Amino acid sequence: MKRIWPLQRVAHPLARAQWRHAGAADNGRMFQVFRAPADLSHWVDGAVVIRLGPTPGVSCFPAVPHAMLTLRLARPAGAPWALCPPITFHTLSTEPMVHAHVGDTVAMGLLVRPEAAACLLGAATGAVVNQVLAWHTLSGAAEAARLDDAVEGARTDIARLRALADSFRRTMAAVSRGRDAACARLCAAVGDRGAQAGDDLGLGRRQLERRCQAVLGLGPKQFQRLVRFHRVLSMAVAGGALPGAALAHDTGFFDQSHLAREVRALAGAPLGRLLEGARPDAAWWPLATRLGRSTGLVLPAGRGGPSGG
Questions:
Q1: pLDDT tens-digit readout, 206-259
Q2: How far is 110 from 54, CA to CA, in rounded Å?
Q3: CA-based, 20 to 30 A from 87: which of 178, 200, 202, 249?
Q4: Residue 252: left (phi > 0), alpha (psi -120 to 50), or beta?
Q5: Position 309 pLDDT exceeds 80
Q6: How far apart are CA 276 and CA 227, in angstroms?
Q7: In total, how many domains does the chain have?
Q8: Spatial CB neighbours of 66, under 8 Å, sequence gap ≥ 6
Q9: Tens of pLDDT, residues 66-75
Q10: What's the CA gap between 196 and 221, in Å, rounded?
Q11: Residue-wise pLDDT tens digits, 207-222
């Protein structure tokens, strides 16, 4: 087993988005989301690019039941865009985060499903949560160097995202070996039924607890809690309104007070503030992936796409 080399904790965006596109905002931000290529759609929910202007600011992220493979580019005054190493893999998160940024920055990444993250981590480090790992920890030094070279040679955001997708594809092909299907069944059952999922999986309660800890780094109740939170958050943001008592109950909460406590615990802010900030030009920009008119953008296999400088 490889040693884990955690990096300074930074935030990763909300996963499970209904991928949409937003243009440049008044403060100089550019925000785009893309569907994953068909051959990665069972491992990756999509891709996101955010370009932050020179004005200092913060980005706020809730806890997430997904992972992310990310890279950052910076542009000092008068200089071209340059990669800020290392490229990083963000594991599942059980707590909210705030990330401060200063100066021109582009961040982009792939939103990785929990079953794919479990395969990658299981082959390298074992299940961990709330960690930011250098990509070479999971992919190996040669693959990580190959990705660095591809990103540094790319001239567009699309080309950089394609390089990320290619590296992820190669690494997953080497480690999945059918494990992703088994992990997907576990995630689907536990996300829906929590500690009761053992009935569907043919596992006793203690077996299920051990399996979840080994595969996800979380117990079944913890994972279901994250999935339930993101389900109701998706509905609230997409609908642009606070959920009523019926919706709270239908999504697994006892009542609206229970929902409010969970949102504060897992997002660090009340739901009303999240809805107000779910814009590309606001601190809760990760939630803006659920707003606006879909353009059907798909991360392509060929050349082209918006310029990244």
A1: 999 999 999 999 999 999 999 999 888 888 887 777 777 877 887 888 888 999
A2: 24
A3: 178
A4: left
A5: no
A6: 22
A7: 1
A8: 15, 16, 45, 92, 111, 112, 113, 114, 117
A9: 999 999 999 8
A10: 9
A11: 999 999 999 999 999 9
Structure tokens at 243: 């959920």
**Can you give the residue range of the structural domain that contains 293?**
1-309
pLDDT in tens, 148-167: 999 999 999 999 999 999 99
Better-predicted residue by pLDDT, 54 or 2: 54
- Decide: 156 and 307 in contact? Cβ < 8 Å: yes
Side-chain-facing half-sphere of 91: CA atoms under 13 Å: 29
What is the 3-class SS of the chain, one letter each residue? CCCCCECCCCCCCCCCCCCCCECCCCCCCEEEEEECCHHHCCCEEEEEEEEECCCCEEEEECCECCEEEEEEEECCCCCCCEECCCCEEECCECCCEEEEECCCEEEEEEEECHHHHHHHHHHHCCCCCCCEEEHHHHHCHHHHHHHHHHHHHCCEHHHHHHHHHHHHHHHHHHHCCCHHHHHHHHHHHHHHHHHHHHHHHCCCHHHHHHHHHHHHCCCHHHHHHHHHHHHHHHHHHHHCCCCCHHHHHHCCCCCHHHHHHHHHHHHCCCHHHHHHCCCCCCCCHHHHHHCCCCCCCECCCCCCCCECC
Per-residue pLDDT band at 18 (split at 50, 70, 90)? very low
